[in-house]
Write a structure and sequence with these properties.
alpha+beta; Phosphatase 2c, domain 1; five-stranded antiparallel β-sheet
Length: 236
């Protein structure tokens, strides 16, 4: 099998720095973790907050810390460093090859969408962001790794797209249709399509920082040589 990851990100219109940060960490017992954070506010201060959170999470995952403990430790760190005055959403999506499960750790006001060949579900239970409330814990969801599985999440810039231009926010059913109508092979197309939809609602002038991430599991024959590949495009 093969794990695929895709990310698409843009800044709020006329802002140089994004308050969203995303990254991928390799798990020491096998697998990948996809980390997404959205710092409170906009611009450089939010950029520093989300970067601090993601870098800390990547380090802990690399040390072998379990995902639930990662979220708690990062919360404690942000709570102390920012004197409980700055919040940040955090979502971690992990393909854990040691347990053969997909683990989702969520402290976000945005949902996580799961699609398999057998069902589609949405995790959107209320949960606090990290950094402000002392006893904050993540919501943890665990599913067996299944070929054809697609997991998608995003930050609230996607969710609120259209509010300033047309007076209503993004249609969640439209986002769901994009996920449902595409396969595990198409994660790049999925994230780009959701991003394009949100930007269209905002008249191509994003009202907030926007990030979409996706991870999928594809059925593949084992190649004679296993090569991991990463492609990044960074406009400036």
């Amino acid at each position: 099998m093969e794990i695929k990851v895709a990310m698409a990100k843009t800044t709020r219109y006329a802002m140089e720095f994004s308050g969203d940060t995303s990254d991928v960490a390799e798990r020491p017992q096998g697998g990948l973790s996809l980390i997404l954070a959205d710092g409170q506010g906009h611009g450089l201060s939010a950029h520093h907050t989300s970067g601090l959170v993601v870098n800390r999470a990547v380090s802990l995952i690399g040390d072998g810390t379990r995902d639930g403990a990662v979220a708690r430790a990062v919360h404690d760190y942000l709570y102390a460093v920012k004197d409980k005055k700055v919040s940040c959403t955090l979502t971690v999506i992990s393909a854990d090859l040691d347990t053969q499960t997909m683990v989702i750790s969520r402290n976000s006001n945005c949902p996580v969408i799961i699609k398999t060949d057998d069902y589609v579900c949405v995790y959107d239970d209320n949960v606090n962001p990290i950094g402000v409330h002392h006893h904050t814990k993540p919501l943890i969801y665990e599913l067996p790794i299944t070929p054809g599985m697609v997991i998608v999440s995003y930050t609230d810039g996607i969710q609120s797209a259209g509010r300033k231009t047309i007076g209503k926010t993004a249609d969640f059913d439209k986002i769901m249709d994009i996920v449902k109508e595409n396969s595990a092979e198409d994660v790049d197309f999925i994230v780009n399509s959701i991003m394009e939809y949100a930007l269209q609602l905002d008249g191509n002038k994003a009202g907030d920082d926007m990030t979409v991430v996706a991870m999928s599991v594809c059925e593949k024959d084992n190649p004679p040589v296993r090569v991991s590949r990463v492609n990044v495009v960074f406009p400036f």
